[in-house]
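As noted in the main text, all predictions were made from sequence alone. Below is one such record, for Actin-like protein 6A.
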Amino acid sequence: MSGGVYGGDEVGAIIFDNGHQSLRVGYGGEDSPKAEIPTSLGVWEDATENSDSNHVGKKRYNIDVTAIQVRRKDMEIVSLMKDGMIEDWDMFERLAEYTYKQRLHALSEHHPILMTECPWNTRVKREKLLELMFEKFNVPAMYICKNAVLAAYANGRSTAMVVDSGATHTSAVPVHDGYVITQGIVKSPLGGDFITMQCRQFFEEKNIELVPACLVASKDVIREREAPRWTRKSGSQPTASWLSYMIRELLQDFQMNCLQVSDSPYDEDVANALPMKHFEFPTGYNDDYGSVRLMIPEALFDPSNVKGVGASILGVGPLVTTSVGMCDMDIRPSLYGSVVVTGGNSCLQGFSDRLNRDLATKTPPSMRLKIISANSSSERRYGAWIGGSILSSLGSFQQMWLSRQEYEESGKIILDKCA
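Prediction:
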């Protein structure tokens, strides 16, 4: 390694895209992540005796989809993320170890690593991440990049308005020439988890019992809307956090299969005229769903009708117009000209069309509006990861890496190189 520049062309970089709900990870230059691992871990304590015969609890972790679904009577499900940032560093370390060993089958010291971060990540957390990857995982080089910038790159833009609708929030982030314009970021706390909560309330009002598939031993075939006949699997009673997590998985299945965003502001007559979607629960209960399919996701675009949501919370359309309004006059046309849609909720049918319609009425006549939304849902969902994959394999990016040599010479100050 010469002159502090990492020349790792022959070794594939590893891209870590940290989201609130899952960690997407894989090799740079590929078109989709190798693995998607939940950022919620199963945590419990094993009592071990020390020399003074005192019981000392040793923390144990269950990581990844299959392990989390194993029922243990004392296992809590805990998320290591908060507001899009890493909160529990011990859990993140375990997750990274698991990722290298079990999913990538790679040695951390052989591959440079590109990490994504949310645009509002703090300096302290960035320094902690840098220290962890160099000191604990001995990576040869790393780089930390804003996920909004990478989502713009994935869609072939260096200047864009990135609308990212994920699990905990929806944000509008202006990106200009590969840099985030921090004062223009606008966030709304309405995201996928809020939609899941709305679904849960709807089923509770209808007295439909939500039971995850792993608790159902057997079920009978029944007619539509008939009371389910099923038997519960025997075993210990799981913790409330585990049950809540498994029900959330079930509701997300319902969301992806049934929900749809209305083309225009929600109208019950229009919603009832649309074809219904059939859905069967693990207990065997099944029904056709009509207007509710459009009513629940409507909250993302028009939160004013939702109980318990303050009037100050903006829908997706106003988020964009507010954000553009906070940016310099000169770059507004280029922001309206490339509105990039990314994040898990953008996979909802009709999301981009509705945003286009909402913005078309608000965009000044002198500006040309263009919504950029990848055709496949996986490209929208993994936008930041794909951008990282593209960036890390560019020849011109190779001198941007923060090498171990630079870290040992200068310490955390080298973070200033990461825009």
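Residues 391 and 397 are 7 Å apart (CA to CA). The chain has four domains: 1-39+85-148+383-419, 40-79, 156-189+313-373, 192-301. These features were considered when defining construct boundaries for the mutagenesis experiments described in Section 2.9.
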